[in-house]
Amino acid sequence: MIYYFSATGNSQYAAEKIAAATGDMARFITAKGGGSGNPNQFGFVTPTYAWELPSLCRDFLKRGAFTIPADAYVFIVSTCGVTPGASGAEAKHLLNKRGIAADALFSVQMPDTWTPIFDLSDPAKNAAVNAKADQALDAIIKQIQKQEHGNFQSRAMPRGVRIVTHPIYEGLRQTFHFRVEDACIGCGLCAKSCPDQAITLRRGRPVWTKTRCAMCLRCLHRCPVFAIQYGFKTKGHGQYVHPPYKN
Ligand SMILES: Cc1cc2nc3c(=O)[nH]c(=O)nc-3n(C[C@H](O)[C@H](O)[C@H](O)COP(=O)(O)O)c2cc1C
Ligand code: SF4
Ligand code: SF4
Question: Which of the four CATH numbers 3.40.50.2300, 3.30.565.10, 3.30.360.10, 3.40.50.360 does domain 2-168 have?
Fold first, then answer.
C-alpha cells in the first residue's frame, strides 16, 4: 500500500504513478476502503512544508491505523518545490518509533505550491517542471522495483534542522493570514474539502474555526473563483492544481 497526503495533486500524482508501475494501490491517508495493494512494499508520499512534514502527515505516522508486513520494502517519497528539507528524515524517524525501518528515501521537485512566495501563474512553466518531475519519478520507480536501499533525497537536511523549521511552520500555519474576497460565491467547497476541518461556512462565507491548520493551501488553490488569499502576494502568483486533478 502507498499512503499519501496531497492538497494540490503533486503527491497524489507521484503516489498513483508509483502504485500503477508497481502493482500497488495509492490511498489518501484518511481514506477508508478495502484492498491492501502490493503486500511486498509500503510507501509513504508526502509534500514538504517549511522543510518538514505537514502536521497531518506527522499525526498519521504517529497514530495512523496501518500495518506493514515484516519483510515489506518500505520507502518514503517527499515531493517539494526546492528541497525536501527534513521531511524524509522526520518520516523515517516516526516510522522507526513504531518499529518500522525505512529502506529508502526519495525526493522529487514539483511546482512549489507555497504561493505566498512562489509564482505559479504561468502554466507553461509549471508544465515544464512537471515534465522533469515525470522523468525523476520514472527513475525512482526503477529504484523501487529493484528495492534499492539508501537515502536518495537531494538537498535533504538532517532532522536536527527542525529546531529552526518547526517554529517557522507553526507560525505560517496561523489561519489569521487568510482573507476572503468579495468574489466568493458561497459554494462551500473550501469547507467541505478541507482535510483539517478548519473551515465552517457562515452566512455563505468561509470562517476559519481553528487558529492553526495544516496550511496545505488546498482551499486557496481549489476555490472556483480564487476568492481565498494568504497575505498579499498569492493573488498575483495564481492558483495551481496538478493538471490531471483539475476540475
Ligand atoms: C505550507 C507550505 C510550505 C511549503 N514548504 C516547502 C519547503 O519548505 N520546501 C519546498 O521545497 N517546498 C515547500 N512547499 C511546496 C510543496 O512541498 C510542494 O509544492 C508539494 O509538491 C505540494 O504537494 P501537493 O500538491 O501534493 O499538495 C510548501 C508548500 C506549502 C503549502
Ligand atoms: S470555495 Fe471559494 S467560492 Fe466557494 S465558499 Fe469557499 S471561498 Fe467561497
Ligand atoms: S483551511 Fe485551507 S490551508 Fe488550512 S488545512 Fe484546510 S484546506 Fe488546508
Answer: 3.40.50.360
Which of 51, 96, 52 is CA-nearest to residue 74?
96
SS3 113: coil
Q: Which CATH architecture has domain 174-245?
A: 2-Layer Sandwich (3.30)
- Which atom of ligand 2 is nearest to 222's Cα? 1
Pocket of ligand 1 (CB under 6 A): 6-12, 47-51, 79-83, 85, 110-114, 172, 215-217, 242
Whether the full predicted model's pTM is greater than 0.90, yes or no, is yes
* Grid cell for residue 89: 528524515
Looking at the CA of 178, which ligand is closest?
Answer: 3
100 lines ligand 3 (CB under 6 A): no
Tens-place pLDDT, residues 173-224: 999 999 999 999 999 999 999 999 999 999 999 999 999 999 999 999 999 9
Q: Per-residue pLDDT tens for 3-15?
A: 999 999 999 999 9
The DSSP symbol for 129 reads H
Residue 184 C-alpha to ligand 2 middle, in angstroms?
A: 5
